[in-house]
Structure formats: C-alpha cells, structure tokens
Design goal:
This protein has helices at about 45-55, 75-80, 95-105, 115-125, 140-150, 170-185, 195-200, 220-225, 275-280, 295-305, and strands at about 5-15, 20-30, 35-40, 60-65, 70, 80-85, 155-160, 190, 205-210, 215-220, 230-235, 250-255, 260-265, 285-295. It is α/β, with parallel strands linked by helices and about 300 residues long. The protein folds into two domains: about 5-225, Rossmann fold (3-Layer(aba) Sandwich); about 230-305, Alpha-Beta Plaits. It has a six-stranded mixed beta sheet with strand order 6-7-8-3-9-10, with helices on both faces.
Length: about 300
Amino acid sequence: MTDAPIISIDGLTKTYAGGFTALHDVSLTVQTGEILALLGPNGAGKTTLISTICGITQPSGGQVRVGGHDVVTDFRAARRLIGLVPQEIVLEPFTRVCDTVAFSRGIFGLPHDAALIEDRLRRLTLWDKRDAMLRELSGGMRRRVMIAKALAHDPRVLFLDEPTAGVDVELRRDMWAIVRDLKSRGVTIILTTHYIEEAEAIADRIAIINGGRIGLVENKHALMRRLGQKELRMDLNRAVDGLPDTLQGRGLDLSDDGRAILYRYTVGAGTDIGPLLADVAAAGLGLRDVRTQESSLEDIFVDLLRETP
C-alpha cells in the first residue's frame, strides 16, 4: 500500500427531503490497495455511503474525493476509477456473457478490448461460459458476471455490496480468493457484508457504521488483539460446590454444573496462565482437561454495536 489515500471523505452528511439524516459528519480515508470491510446493521448507512462515493446519491454536505477527483464537481473522472457490484443481480437474461461485459466497458467510452475482456472472464472462471446466455447461468455464476462487468473498465476501486449473499459456502470461499487476487493486482476493495467471517477472512481494516456515523476504523488484527477475549476453561475431575478460598478474587468463575473453572482475559493482555494452573492444582482440584477459546470478530462486532447508539 502507498501512503496516498485513494478515497478521502471529509465531513460527509446526507439528509433526504423528508428530513431523515442517513449520514452524520462521516470522515474516512481508504488507502490504495487495501481491503476495507464496512460493517453495520441494516439501516446503518452503508448503502447511502457507497452510493454517495459512487456519485449515485448527492451529498448534503462535506466532500468526497476518489483518486483526487471530487465526486460532485469532477464526477466523470471520479466515477471512471470506480467499479460497483450491487447486492441485487441485475442482468439482461437474453444477452451473452461476453457481450454484457463488453457493453459495460463501452458505457465509460472505452474502445473494445478483446484481450482485457478475456482476462476478466478467465480470472473469474467465466471464459467457458462466454457465449452462454445469462439466463442459463446459476446465481453464483451471475454474481461473477456482475464482478466482471464492474472490472471491465479497469477501475482502481471496487465496491462489493454483499457479494456473497445467497451463495453456498464453497462459492463464498471462491469469491474470497477472487478478492485476494484483485488486491494483489493493486485494486482497492470496499466490502459490505453480513457474514462477519468474511470480513475476518479477507479484510485489512474494519470500519463500523451505525446510525449514519462511523464509530470505529481499525486494523483488523489490532482490533481483535485490543478487544478480543479469551476464555480458559479448566475441566475438573469432579464437581465442586464452590471455589476454594485461595482462588477467590482471581477473576475466576465456576460453571453452573461445578465441573469447570472459567477464566476470561483480553487477548492482548499477555496473561501468564502458568501460575494460575499451578494454584488450581495446589488447591487440590484435579484437572481433567484445559481448553482455550478466542472471541471472533463477530463477537467483537456485536459488543461494539451494544455500546453505540
């Protein structure tokens, strides 16, 4: 990644005619070549934010620049840098795959480029389907065509709005591989998804939006280290009625059935569990098994939403 942001958003607001404000003073930068996952509940402002960056929705205030071009005053230059894959699959059913991708390139006033179209179709495992009518394709294949269309004019930024909605697990993982390949070629990707595992698998940074406000933007790994929790579960050889006095005040909990001791700590805290295990053994509690479980990005996301309005 380079230091220069490909997308710069400063004080962006959007209020609709009825008075509803969908975006409140949003500021955000996206670096060239990164994958940013934009997470938030339904109605949080994700689609409005994407639509505004893409020039589909007019902002009420603030400024958005893509590649240095203002999306309002220099719309054509900004939009030329953007590829958009909406959540809904909208394709002409009686058009051939290769023709619909070529047509998308023509929308931007670019000449036909057979080699580029072939590259996009091959990269998305669509070359064998190039002469097929779109109505003959499966839902997953049609979603790949949507990505090919968005890449036909060779954009520097790609927006993927729920790209794997309604597809099976195998195809979802194929799509992750496609996204990683695009990143390796220098394409910047902004991803919205309801599959938190998707963001955990492929994103570099996480941005959380709720109520039209960006509440957090952070490196994925740093976020999980800072807010992630681990649970150490110590299964006992026999059930006990309570914790011995020597283990009181240590932040330990006894499971409901009395057969396990639970200890929760922050991932990045660097807790030394060796002395704790020794103290449990010294208290005369025999250990049958010891396991740890780390919170996922989904756990962190849910907790953050509880903390924000």
